[in-house]
Amino acid sequence: MLEIGNVSFGYEKNVPVVRNLSCRLQEGRIYGLLGMNGAGKTTLLKLLSGLLFPDSGSIILDGKDVSKRSVETLQKIFYMPSEFRFPGISLEKLIGLQSVFYPYFSLEILMDCLESSGIGSEVKDLGKLSGGQKKKVMLAFALSVRTNILLMDEPLDGMDIPSRDIFRKLLVKHTDESRTVVISGHRTQDMENLLTDVLIFRKDGTVFAGCLEELSGRYSFGVDRTGAGAVYAEPCPGGFRVIRENMPSAWHDTDADLEMLFNAVRKGVIR
Amino acid sequence: MKTFSFRRMWRFCRLLLEQMCFYSFGKAAAVMLAVIVFCCLLPLLAMDGAIQEKMSVTEDLIKVLVMFLLPVTYGLAMSGGVLVPNLMIPAGRGEKFAAAYFGAALMGAAVAVMAVIVGSGVYWLGGLVMATDAVHDPGTGQYLLFVRNGAALWRTLLEVCITSTVIAMILPVLRNNGYRKPGFWLGVLVYLLVLFAPAAMMMAGVLSRSAAQVSTAVISCLLLAVNVWYSCFLMKRCELG
Question: Taking Cα atoms as reference points, which of B50, B52, B67, B31 lies closest to residue B120?
Fold first, then answer.
């Protein structure tokens, strides 16, 4: 379990990017990290991975401070950045050099992911792959190292629509109960039916954290002609897209509309 | 879990060496080979004088190559291009630090061995072409670069070791804009003063030659230890900065 305790961070003094964030990231959950461009999604992922250090507060993974960057901690975290470069070498060589550092690396999972993505295991020159193909290879490696924490920064950017579908299937297939996944992105459509929880950045650097199952019980998401009585409404063809609060006695599940939820949180309607 | 594992250190060293050689040891060796051949041909063809003098110039050129080119490349890569992308590799700081030095030592040793074998071969061929017998030692046979009579191997090793460490240490500081701080230049000044103090005192007639040599050796060893400690500190700052 990753425990985030009252974490604040800013690149400049008195300009916090992350403010007083406290939450627990549980095993077996897939968290969606949503926010505007420049809101601090990448910063938070770097804080969680130990690449940045909180100005105040702590991030504890299985009882150990992530910022200490011990080998044991690093073996439990895989961070997939949004932009990366591969050297002009074969996939086999890269895997040979990098996988030895991860004790639970699985060649079977790697092969499964590569085959499913249509890349195959025979890649002679990684440098010649397209941006989307590189993401697929990186995703395959990220899943095959089987770390407890998998942090992915905008993994779907640059991928075509079928590949996004394959990404979702592979992620669900190879994410077991021992694993925590955090995916950042700003295209909510890509993450629907994949996430179990959301972390949404507000304008002031604070973060809304919620379980989607609970949110979809508490709120109804739909289209209404007038939008009257809704917690949040925004115009759309045919009326208004609305979020309504359900009475606690009559909680029922409707699929949470991530885009609506994101807008409502960002505008401070849902706290 | 072990805080220092030789296996992890070696794996990280292998990764660093691959990255430093652009994932092709063959190409890196070919480039180094070309440079060594150039260092041999330049004095052989351009200089007048005895073959031993030309060999001495070649040795100096290769020393400069190893002392400066290698740590400069290594230092630059370590401080920016290699360390940063490898920050998430699960290896301890001590292991990464040891791997960096072990890697540098391996590269230096490889260049030195290559220089002895290839350089001596070039001189032997030069001797054949120029129809001179001067490249052969009457007592021991073929002259070998660095290990021929008159070439102080231990001194060369010490020079290479100290200079490489100093340069490797200074480069990360330069990259961190340390040169903008007066303290950095004061440190460099004190470092050089301490290093050359015995020689200056010998010239001033305060110390005898042998006393100056012993003092320089002791100071060099102490400074080497300081360099190693300080570069470890810089590496920690690079990782935790």
Answer: B52
Quick check: A45 pLDDT over 90? yes
H or E element: which one contains A162?
A: helix A161-173
> Which DSSP helix (H) or strand (E) runs through B90?
none
Model confidence band, residue A75 (pLDDT cutoffs 50, 70, 90): very high
Supply φ then ψ for residue A186, to 5 degrees: -120, 0
Residue A173 tokens, joined: 């297939």
Using the Cβ of A51 and the Cβ atoms of chain B, whether some distance falls under 8 Å is answered with yes
* Three-state secondary structure call for residue A186: coil
Task: Using alpha carbons, list the distances in angstroms from residue B160 to B62, B77, B164, B169, B215.
Answer: 10, 19, 6, 14, 19
Q: Are strands A30-34 and A64-65 parallel, antiparallel or unpaired?
A: unpaired
- Mean pLDDT of all residues in chain A? 87
Spatial CA neighbour of A147 closest among A179, A195, A101, A108: A179
Q: What is the 8-class DSSP label of residue A88?
A: S
Asked if A61 contacts A73 with a C-beta cutoff of 8 angstroms, the reply is yes
CB atoms within 10 A of CB A106: 16
Over the stretch B135-165, which tens digit does the pLDDT of each residue have?
Answer: 555 555 567 777 776 556 666 666 666 666 6
Go through B78-99 and write b for each residue having 16 or more CB atoms within 10 A of its CB, e for each that does not: bbeebbeebbbbbbbbbbbbbb
> How many other CB atoms are there within 10 angstroms of residue B113's CB atom?
10
Closest CA to A152 of A240, A237, A80: A80
Amino acid B112: pLDDT? 80
Helix (H) or strand (E) holding A234: strand A232-236
pLDDT tens-digit readout, B68-106: 666 666 665 555 555 666 778 898 888 887 887 788 778
Q: Strand pairing partners for A181? A: A30, A150
Over residues A221-248, mean pLDDT? 81
Q: Which of A248, A186, A163 is nearest to A33 (CA)?
A: A186
| Helix/strand/coil for A183 | strand
**B25-46 and B6-20 helices cross at what angle (nearest 10)?**
60
Q: Which of A11, A76, A97 best probes binding to B when mutated, by most B CB atoms within 10 angstroms?
A: A97
- Nearest of A200, A157, A150 to residue A172 by alpha carbon: A150
Give tens-digit pLDDT for B19-48. 878 788 888 889 889 988 998 888 888 887
Measured between alpha carbons, how far is A196 from A143 in angstroms, rounded to an integer?
Answer: 18
Say whether B18 and A97 touch across the interface (CB within 8 A): yes
Residue B85 DSSP symbol: G
Higher pLDDT, B83 or B13: B13
Is residue B172 pLDDT above 70, yes or no?
no
For A72, the closest chain B residue by CA position comes to B1
Chain B residues with CB within 8 Å of chain A CB: 1, 3, 8, 11-12, 14-15, 18-19, 22-23, 87-93, 95, 239-240
pTM: 0.80
